[in-house]
Amino acid sequence: xxxxxxxxxxxxxVFILSSIFLMLCTxxxxxxxxxxxxxxYEPGTRDYVWSIDTLNIDAPFNYYTKIxxxxxxxxxxxxxxPKENMQILRFNGDSVYSxxxxxxxSTPWSVFGFDSNDVxxxxxxxxxxxxxxxxxxxxxxLYKKDYIMSAFSDIWGTSHSHLMAAGGILHSTDVIYxxxxxxxxxxxxxxxxxxxxxxxxxxxxxxYEDDYFLLGFKLGNNSPDSSFxxxxxxxxxxxxxxxxxxxxxxxxxxxxxETIYFINNKIIYKLWDGAIKQKxxxxxxxxxxxxxxxxxxxxxxxxxxxGIGHYNGSNLALVYNIDERFGIxxxxxxxxxxxxxxxxxxxxxxxxxxxxxNINDTIQKSIFNNYNMY
Length: 374
Prior knowledge:
The protein is mainly beta and 374 residues long. 9% of the residues lie in helices and 51% in strands. The protein has 2 helices and 29 strands. The strands form 7 sheets. Strands 10, 11, 12, 13 and 14 form a 5-stranded antiparallel sheet that branches. Strands 1-29-28-27 form a 4-stranded antiparallel sheet, with no helix packed on it. A hairpin with a 7-residue loop joins strand 3 (74-80) and strand 4. The longest helix is centred in the first third of the chain and has 21 residues, at 2-22. The chain is globular, with a radius of gyration of 20 Å.
C-alpha cells in the first residue's frame, strides 16, 4: 500500500515539475469601441550591477519552484526535495537561510504575500501556512475525500482579505483535478468543484479588472495544444481564446504595472479596459522562454539564448550572460532591483541572480542632462 501511495504521489510531482520546467526548455478578444487611453512608459535602463548566490549547495537534490518578496531584503523561495529543512528559504539581501517549517512532510509549492508580516505558502498536504512576522503557522487544511495529495501551484491576491490559489489535487484513481481556492479573510475554501484532467499552474489578477486569470494544462487531451488561458469571475471558470501553441508550454500570464499580459509563442497580448490585443512580438529574437518579469511593457526581462535579456520598448538585448545550459523558473522586480531564480540543467544547481540598478550612474546622467538644459 505504501508503495502504491508513493507512486501516486510521484505522478503528481512529476507532472507539476514537468509543467514548470518544460516552460523553460491567435484570436484575441474583440476590442471595445472605446478604450481608456493606455499609459505611456519610458524605456527602462539596462545599467545593472549583478551578483549570484547558490540556493541548494547544502541540499543538492532539492528543487525550487516559486519566489516572492516584500522588498529586496525580504525574498522568499519555496520548493521540495529530500532535505525538508531546506524547502523554505529566505534571502535578506546578503545571504540565504532556511525558515523553520512546522510540517516538513508538506512540500511547499507556492508563496505569496503583501508584506514581511503577511506571507502565505501552499503545500502538498492540502494545507496553507501563514507567516505573521514571527512564526509560520498552519492556517487550515482542505482535505477532500478520496484525494491523496495537493499541488497548490500558485497564489495571488490584491488585498489581505481576498486571495486566490490555483493548482491540482491527485485522486486515488491517479486522475489529477484542477482546483481553485479563495481566501475570504478568515479561511481558505474551494471556489468550485475540482475539474478532472486539469492542472492550473498560474493565477493573476490586476487592480484594473474584477476577474482572475489562470493558465492550465489539460491532461489526456488529444489536441497538440493542451494549455489554455482561463477567466474566473462570479464562481465561473471560462476558457479564453488567445491562439494555440505547440509545444503547450509556450504560454504564460504576466503582470506588469498592475496590467495583465498573456504570452503565447513569443507574442505578448495586453488586457486593457476589458479588451485583449496583440502588443509586442518577440518572434525571431533571442528570447527562449515566455515568462516575462518586469515593471512595464518597456522595462521587462526574459530568458534568452545565452542569458537574461531586457526589452526596453525598442529591442531585446542580453544584460546578464550565462555560459551553462540553464532555465529561469521564476522572478520578481522592485523599483531598483530584480531577482531571478533558476537552475543549471546539467548540474541541477539552483541559483538566485540579483540585479541592482547602477543608481550612481543614473544620478550622474540625470545631473548631466539637467545641466545641458541651461
